[in-house]
Amino acid sequence: MKKVLVGIATVGVVSIGGIFAVSGMDKEKEPETSAAASNETGESNVVEEPIDEEKEEVVEIPTERTVDTGPNPPWKHFKSEKIEELHENGETVYLYSDAIEIEEHAIDIINTEVPEGAPATKGDIAKSTARHLDLFIVEVSDYVDNQAYFDKLGEVSQALKNEQYDSVPTLIEEAKTLRES
C-alpha cells in the first residue's frame, strides 16, 4: 500500500512540475522598456531601451586535472586514445598551464634522434605528438579565448603529421607570441 501511495505522490509532483514548466514556455519574451515620460504638452515620450536579460557566461579556466597523471604531463602518462576517452567522459586532462610544456615537447620531438631498429620511427613519434596537440587544442580551446593561438598550434600539429620538421620551431615561436599576447 505504501508503494502505491509513494508512486501516486511521485506522479503528482512530476505532473505539477511539468505543468509549471510548460506554462512558462507559453509566454513570449518581450524586451522590457524604460518607463514613459510625459512632456509639458501631455504627449508621451517613450524611450525604448531593451534590457539585455542575457548575461555573458563566464567560463572558469580549470586549474586542476580531474585525472591523475602523477608527476608527468598527460602526453607522457596516457596514450592519445585514452586521453580522448577521458575527455569524452567529461574529465579535465589538459590545462592551459600545459601550453609551455607541450610547445617545448614539440620542439624536443623534432630534435630527437631515433635509433635504427627502434620500435617507433621519428615520424610515428611526431604523429603521436601531433595527436596530443590536437587533443590539447580541442580541450583547452573550450575555455580559453585565443583562437589565433590554437590555430597556430594546429599548424604545428599539421607540420608534425607531414614530417615538415624545419617549420616547427618557427610555428612554435609564433604560437608562443600569440599565447603571450
Q: Concise description?
A:
The protein is mostly helical and 181 residues long. It is built from seven helices and two strands, in the order αββαααααα. Strands 1-2 form a two-stranded antiparallel ribbon.
List the helices and strands and how they pair.
Layout: H1 2-26, E1 37-38, E2 44-45, H2 74-77, H3 80-88, H4 99-111, H5 122-140, H6 147-161, H7 168-180
Antiparallel strand pairs: 1-2
Task: Describe the fold and architecture.
This protein has 181 residues and is an all-alpha fold. It has a domain at 94-180. 54% of the residues lie in helices and 2% in strands. It has helices at 2-26, 74-77, 80-88, 99-111, 122-140, 147-161, 168-180, and strands at 37-38, 44-45. It has a two-stranded antiparallel sheet. A hairpin with a 5-residue loop joins strand 1 and strand 2. The chain is globular and about 50 Å long.
